[in-house]
Structure formats: C-alpha cells, structure tokens
C-alpha cells in the first residue's frame, strides 16, 4: 500500500529516501561516554583483533561493492591488508586463510547461500568470521563469531540501496574500531573521523533534495548502454551505479576504473555515448582529481555525453561536463555515501519512466538461498 511506502511511488523510492536515517541509525549508540568506539556486540577478544594480519571480505552483489569501499578505508586507517572477494569465487579456489585472518561477511539478508558457504569454509580453515548483517535472527550472524548489525530497517525492494549505505557505514565503524584497538590512531583522530561520519546523514539529505535534476536527465535518456567511470573509492561507486542500472532498467551498463580507460574501454566511446564520471574531491591527496578531469576531456573529445558527479565548488569540471550533479564536500573515504545516491536515483527513475517494476525486477530475488 501507499502508506507502507511512506507516500512514495515504490519501495525503492522510499528506501532511497530512507538513507540518511539508515546511516544515522547505524552510527547510533556505538560510542561510550568518553567518545570511544564501543562495539561490545562483537564479542571478539581485543587480543584476537590485535593478532589479525589480514582481512578478507566476502559478499555478493551490492554488498561486495560495500566491501570494495571498505578496503580503501580499512587499509588506510589500520594498515592491515584487505582482500575483497565474491563469496562464490572465494569458496572454490582454495584461498589462503588461517587463524590470523579476519573474514568479514557482508550481507543484507544474512541468508545468501554463496556467502554462507564462504563463511563455513573460512571457519573450517580456522579463521574468525565477523558478519555485517541487516536482518536479525538470520543464518549468517548465527554462524558467525561476531556480528555488527546495520540498522537500515527492512529493505523490501529487491535491489539494494539503503542497506548498501548502512553496510559502508558499518565497515567504517569496524575500521575505526580496529584502529582504536590496535593503536593505529590517537583517540582524538578517531573522534574526528567519527564527527565527519556523523555529518554524513545531513549531506545525504542534501543530495536527495537535489534529486530532481537527476530525474529529469533519467527520463530523457534513450541510450541502451551507459558507462560509469570512477577512481579510488569512486571505482566501486561506478560498479554499483552500473549494477543498479542493469538490475532496474535492464540496460547494458558497465563500470570501469577511470585509469583503465586508456587500456581498453575508451574504444567503446562513440558520439552520444552517455558516461557517468565520479570525480574525486579536488582537496584529496595526490593528483587524482586532475587525472579524472583529463579522462572526462578525453571521452568528451570522442563525443561522449558526460554526466559528472562532482563536489560543490569544483569549477574544474564545468568546461567538460554536459551535466554536473553536485554533492556536498566530504572526506574522500566517506564520499561514496554521497556519490552513489544520484546513480541510484538515475536507475530508479529511468526504469520507472520505462514502465518497469523497480521493486521486483525480472529474474532477481531479494535473497538467493541456493548456490
Ligand atoms: C541478491 C539481490 C542483491 C543483493 C545480493 C546480495 O542478488 O538481488 O540486491 O545485493 O543478493 O544479498 P545479501 O542479502 O547477501 O546482501
């Protein structure tokens, strides 16, 4: 009913708009009075966490892209190597895992069979498994050594949106907690990161408030192929943007690492080809910003229609962008919580404009309980 959808057309629209709350709730109640992260629910000895020498994230679909974002943050904050692997690939290739490996399983439903099999395999090799799960009482948290729940609330639409933002948020908490336990960061540094994180829900709301611009572009999109480019944490965002479009609108879509463009994908660019580009913050480290701007120039010169996601005030993108979807300033590692939102709105609106059922796309299931 429309009441269940909170007045929105579809569950997907509602869940996209629930995202500031999904992130806020996932952050709530996870610090003590002194402002230190407190994840008691983990029930893993701090000594075990201090001994971890490798993290392997296992997940499927959108949850795997949350893991991909986590890799950037956790390696940067904790200096622990992080691998991210699709659960079904991990399980069948004889991966190197042992007592010092922390396997992090990310799953909205907690029931994905591929992910469950990866969890069991990891435990057989002696690894500890920590799961990041949205659904209480499901199978994967029951079998895990530790659980960090996301508080996105029930996600009804088959394709994941708010659970994704909550998963990313939970991995930030995990990364900062590991940094706290292992002494990689001073308490005031962690407090600063947490303050940045707590500012994100309002910024996500700002992106939602600007959604009409994306919707207008989506309604007029008549291409049957869309490309997505991103770099650093923008890369998994590009992959997720492409996945949303495949799932919801049945359009051929592909995400690429922007640096890979010249190694192949640029051959796909012909006049009129729509390409989304997620531009890193101009305040970020290294010269990634200017490299991605060069990528936009290169594809524009070949006739691409450039749909650019950029930070407020980034004047450099303007000369080469056909459209700019602005997002508020944020620390680079946290920026996926903002930059993915226009891509979700785009896929949802395009599919709706084509008369498709965005809540229940063809051939897909909310939780895949078979291998
Ligand atoms: C299915 C859904 C996807 C989801 C994936 C993983 O394929 O259609 O939206 O990302 O499963 O689900 P999980 O519940 O493990 O996060």
- Assembly classification: single chain
Q: How are the strands of the biggest sheet laid out side by side? A: 2-1-3-4-5
Beta strand % = 15-25%
Secondary-structure-derived class: alpha/beta
Give helix % range.
Answer: 40-55%
Distance between the termini: 33 Å
Mean pLDDT equals: 95
Evaluate the radius of gyration.
Answer: 20 Å
Q: Which ions, cofactors or small ligands are bound in this entry?
A: 6-O-phosphono-alpha-D-glucopyranose
Number of helices: 14
List low-pLDDT spans: none
GO biological process, one term: UDP-N-acetylglucosamine metabolic process
Keywords: Aminotransferase, Cytoplasm, Glutamine amidotransferase, Repeat, Transferase
Active site: 366 (for fru-6p isomerization activity)
Main location: cytoplasm
Descriptive notes:
- One of its GO terms (biological process) is carbohydrate metabolic process.
- With 371 residues, the protein is of the alpha/beta class.
- Helices cover 43% and strands 15% of the residues.
- It contains 14 helices and ten strands.
- The chain has helices at 11-17, 19-27, 46-51, 62-78, 87-91, 113-124, 139-143, 162-182, 187-198, 200-209, 211-219, 234-249, 288-301, 336-353, and strands spanning 54-59, 82-86, 101-107, 128-133, 146-149, 225-230, 252-257, 274-278, 305-311, 323-327.
- It has a five-stranded parallel beta sheet with strand order 2-1-3-4-5, with helices on both faces.
- α12 (234-249) links the parallel β6 and β7.
- α4 runs parallel beside α8 (162-182), α8 packs antiparallel against α9 (187-198) and α12 runs parallel beside α14.
- The protein binds 6-O-phosphono-alpha-D-glucopyranose.
- The site of 6-O-phosphono-alpha-D-glucopyranose has 15 residues, from α4.
